[in-house]
Inverse folding.
């Protein structure tokens, strides 16, 4: 067989509640206040989403010095450090915070435990904006570890009050292994009651675990900067399924599908469904005749929008507000 026959779709896949809310915040700010709206960092890590919002009048910046006085500024879904929050306030911007509430939950936990004298071990990827934002909740006292080897090297000032926090979009399996290493080295370490890895990351990885053994190839729709999308591709690879991540259908290569009977398809939490549909069309053009959706958890979570972004005449969703 030279061409794919069937496409199996992971469920759930694509947008999570935090991404939906973040994009909605930028769109509503554009509708209510007009362009330009400034956004610190890519609102979510997806090229299509960012280009679409740019076309509508959003300007993405990294340095607050690039935002003119009095402008409307939105913090991305990844969250920001206290220093960035303070600088934005001091510069007098009209601020909306699109930080995912599940990232804010980690920030709140860090602040609360720090008051009680805790030091932290954070499991995460160095340089990722979410990690920068969480590290920046305190002036020191959070030690970043990326792998088990880092756990052996970390040197907290004391070990009686030590807590673990994690980035929300890690590999569930890697995080469990690193947490076990932390526990083995620091038996008194406090772990979060509910893990910091978010429901969307967990559900998308569970769906790939179900899908991978049933397919010869897994395509993940996601941008290279998207942490949770990269973890999906890695997970499939670890399970022995060849996997590629693509930003759009244009990146698919015909040779990937040669001799492949079943193709699995999923999308990271920041990748819109329109891209998934374009990928399906392209794989169909290469020969696939059917598309089957696997059953999986139905996600119904929705986060409320910040105050001040209700559109005139639009119905306010129950619980809307902060
Ligand atoms: S991936 Fe998780 S933490 Fe990130 S925006 Fe989505 S729900 Fe929030």
């Amino acid at each position: 067989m030279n061409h794919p026959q069937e496409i199996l779709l992971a469920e759930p896949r694509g947008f999570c509640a935090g991404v939906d809310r973040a994009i909605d915040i930028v769109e509503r700010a554009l509708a209510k206040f007009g362009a330009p709206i400034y956004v610190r960092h890519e609102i979510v890590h997806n090229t299509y989403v960012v280009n679409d919002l740019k076309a509508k009048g959003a300007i993405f910046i990294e340095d607050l010095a690039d935002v003119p006085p009095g402008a409307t500024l939105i913090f991305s879904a990844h969250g920001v450090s206290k220093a960035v929050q303070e600088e934005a306030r001091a510069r007098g911007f009209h601020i909306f915070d699109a930080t995912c509430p599940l990232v804010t939950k980690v920030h709140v936990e860090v602040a609360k435990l720090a008051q009680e004298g805790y030091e932290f071990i954070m499991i995460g990827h160095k340089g990722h904006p979410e990690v920068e934002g969480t590290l920046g909740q305190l002036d020191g006292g959070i030690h970043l570890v990326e792998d088990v080897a880092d756990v052996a090297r970390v040197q907290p000032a004391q070990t009686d009050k030590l807590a673990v926090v994690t980035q929300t979009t890690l590999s569930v399996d890697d995080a469990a292994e690193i947490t076990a290493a932390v526990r083995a080295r620091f038996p008194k370490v406090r772990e979060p009651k509910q893990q910091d890895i978010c429901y969307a990351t967990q559900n998308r990885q569970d769906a790939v675990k179900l899908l991978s053994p049933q397919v010869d190839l897994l395509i993940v729709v996601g941008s290279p900067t998207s942490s949770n999308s990269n973890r999906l591709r890695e997970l499939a690879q670890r399970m022995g399924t060849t996997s590629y991540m693509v930003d759009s259908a244009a990146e698919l290569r015909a040779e990937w599908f040669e001799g492949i009977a079943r193709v699995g398809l999923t999308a990271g939490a920041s990748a819109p469904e329109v891209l998934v549909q374009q990928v399906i069309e392209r794989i169909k053009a290469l020969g696939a005749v059917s598309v089957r959706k696997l059953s999986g958890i139905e996600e119904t979570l929705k986060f409320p929008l910040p105050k001040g972004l209700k559109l005139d005449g639009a119905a306010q969703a129950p619980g809307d507000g902060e």
